[in-house]
Amino acid sequence: MAAPQLLARKRRLKSQFLARSKRPRGAGRQLEAGMRGILITCNMNERKCVGEAYSLLGEYGDLLYGPEQLPEPAERLSGSDREEEEQEEEEDDAEAALKKEVGQIRASTERRLRRFQSVESGANNVVFIRTQGIEPENLVHHILKDIHTTKKKKTRVILRMLPISGTCKAFLEDMKKYTETFFEPWFKAPNKSTFQIVYKARNNSHMNREEVIKELAGIVGSLNPENKVDLNNPQYTVVVEIIKNVCCLSVVRDYVLFRKYNLQEVVKSNKEDMKQNPSNVSEEQNSTAVKPETVEENLKEVKQEQE
């Protein structure tokens, strides 16, 4: 390789290296506003939880969306990239180190394009799997529906699996502005539904539970005054999961029937379950006839969460 070309290549690689070094540490690998995915709780073994999550989500993801299509290694390299590989022997140690950094950037980009990718949640015993190109609520509902029907236990350390359809900053004004649009598919007129709001905060002390629930319920009511709160047998459950400064949101069906989306509990046989059918994924407005919990039980649960 001619000296001017080699020098130009070194400068280009160095600029890429410097650009990467300026990125915040962990950028793209931590839960942040703007992500969608699946929030999973586990019993003290996060590494095994991630493995189980990949296996379970991969199995049902392939069934619903077909096998994941990834480019072959040879296709990931452009013509200039292949030329660089052939000329690697001519590079000195410094250039080889820079090239390694570029390879890491490329690998990081490919990970971000995968259908499922684990990122740091910011809380102990909580795993967040970022999703690409799928609907988290439909996928998780399908998993729970199948496990509920077959009563076949498929995980050991995963406890709850909650779809997260949207995330925003965990500040009341941000949440109010975001949910005005986020809630529309379920609650904006002419749609009307019964609903409840469940709230959980981790590693966050500046949010007030009662204030958040009151504001979000008000937004649902403003979209259609016929939307009504129902703590016993709601058509939809608004899930609010706050971790540090990120608010994770979803609107799910069959929350009571599927034992609050707990994979360990939903496999247990229950005579009442035989009388019920989970709502169909394609019929968003259909409610599920489930055995209602009493108001006292709901209040007891709220008290336990507060403690």
Automatic annotation (TrEMBL):
InterPro entries: THUMP_dom (IPR004114), THUMPD1-like (IPR040183)
Keyword flag Cell membrane: no
Domain THUMP: start-end pairs: 146-253
BP GO annotations: tRNA modification
Natural source organism: Coturnix japonica (Japanese quail)
Superkingdom of this protein's organism: Eukaryota
Ranges of biased composition (kind: Acidic residues): 82-95
Subunit structure: Interacts with NAT10. Binds tRNA.
Biased segments, Basic and acidic residues type: 293-307
Region of interest (Disordered), ranges: 68-96, 270-307
Family: Belongs to the THUMPD1 family.
Keyword tags: RNA-binding
Pfam families: THUMP
A GO MF term: RNA binding
Role noted for this protein: Functions as a tRNA-binding adapter to mediate NAT10-dependent tRNA acetylation modifying cytidine to N4-acetylcytidine (ac4C).
Annotated protein name in UniProt: THUMP domain-containing protein 1
Gene3D superfamilies for the chain: THUMP superfamily (3.30.2300.10)
Residue stretches of biased makeup (Polar residues): 276-289
